[in-house]
Specification:
By secondary structure, the chain is α/β, with parallel strands linked by helices. The chain has nine helices and eight strands. Strands 1, 2, 3, 4, 5, 6, 7 and 8 form an eight-stranded mixed β-sheet that branches. Strand 1, helix 3 and strand 2 form a beta-alpha-beta unit. Helix 7 packs antiparallel against helix 9. The radius of gyration is 19 Å and the shape is globular.
Amino acid sequence: MDFRKIFSTIPDKFDRYRPRYCDELFVDLIEYAKLAPGKTVLEVGPGTGQATDPILKTGCSYLAIELAENFVEFMAKKYRNLDNFQIVNADFETYDFSDQQFDLVFSAAAFQWIPEEIGYSKAFKILKSGGVFAMFSGNGGVPDEPLHTQCQEVYKKHFFPETPYTCKLDHEASDKYGFVDLEKRTYNSYREMNADEYVALRGTHSDHLTLPEPHKTNLFEGLRQVVLDNGDYIKLNDVYTLYLAKKP
């Protein structure tokens, strides 16, 4: 399987447990890009719509490009009643947008899967003059102490992935590809979970999904026990980062 598609093996679980970011981030993005009916938007790698709802609600003309077939089916069903929604099952790296141009191109925790020189260059090409390019992601949620240290000890014992997650992207390199007015904004939020919810969340990450046995079972049971020993409660502190840039 294409490692970029591994998430689509669990669409329902992915949709339930992956974070939706925070309202303040979307307020800033929508205001910055001046989204409204008549504006054209492309989302790269929407997953199951973790960053989609607030954008669609602006009334913009929305197109998503998603590599994973199961996610495309999930999104198509989820938004089938919206006239301003469209999705294509394709690889952003190779897809021919022809003469399509967008007011906003954005990606939430997906653009790092695309080689920098391809992703930035293509985003720049398909944006209108004055258009906005946006990327955002989170830190995955860091527990309060002492749970953070306890969870890390479990990882040291049992986390030995066959296919490590190695994606890296210089989020501040867009100026090398013609973009201007780069901005970085951060937001803080938190989530509260029980043991089963926390384990389910960790199980939506690519290098956890492919973790061989018995490491996978031992890792998840170890994490579950840490949370159970804390009264079946864990607080995750989220830091979301939004990168903004414009095409001159």
